[in-house]
Structure formats: structure tokens, C-alpha cells
Design a protein that fits this description.
Largest sheet: none
Radius of gyration: 25 Å
Helix content: 40-55%
CATH architecture of the largest domain: Orthogonal Bundle
CATH superfamily of the largest domain: lambda repressor-like DNA-binding domains
Distance between the termini: 82 Å
Oligomer: single chain
Shape: flat
Number of domains: 2
CATH topology of the largest domain: 434 Repressor (Amino-terminal Domain)
Number of helices: 7
Structural class: mainly alpha
Order of helices and strands: HHHHHHH
Length: 124
Amino acid sequence: MSSLKLHYVDSPRLPPQALVVSKPQRRRTFIKEWRAARAMSQEQLAELAGMSPGNLSLLERGEINYTQPTLEALADALDCSVVDLLTRDPKQPGEIFGLWEKATIRQRRQLDQIASTILKTGDD
């Protein structure tokens, strides 16, 4: 067996420094806005999504990270998509998404065809 030798290097003592802990940057969500648009309390939404009201509150404030299963449960409970929760404020006026949300299945097909035609023909 070989012996292990420890070598210590003398270094000047450094003055103590305050440890700065920055709050991690979390991606903004629109969960609270969707909940308000659906006239739901935190308790109601939390129950439908299978989570505690406290965790929902932390999630809405960006204090904790979300997971894909959590977003899917919230989207199902709010009758919207996960993409909506991450990218769209339901109160924004004049957005095509508002029209889409109000449209029937048949009207959504028509909107899709119209939008596809516009994109194919360009902006001339």
C-alpha cells in the first residue's frame, strides 16, 4: 500500500465576504391571468389540477419551477393549452387567439384555411 501525503499551502487569509444568492430567473407564465379569466379561485384551480393551493400560489408568483405534468394538469383545468399558459395573456385585446377561443370547431377549420391561404399568397 502506498502512503498518501497531504500538502498544505499557506495562503493569506481573505476577509470574509457576504454570500450573494440571486433569485433564479424563471420563465414568466400566464397561469394567474388564465385563472382570473376563468373566474376561478386558487383553491378551485388547485383542486381541479390535483395540487395544493399553496403550491399554485408559489407557481403563479414564480417562486417555484413548473413541470410538464403540472402545466398539462393546469391547462386541462383551465380549458386552454400549455402553450397558452406560457405565452399568452388571455386579456390581450385584438389577438387572433381570442377569436380562435370563441370559434366553434367548424369555424376553427375555416380560420385555419383562411390563415393558410394568407401565408401561401404572401403580403402582396
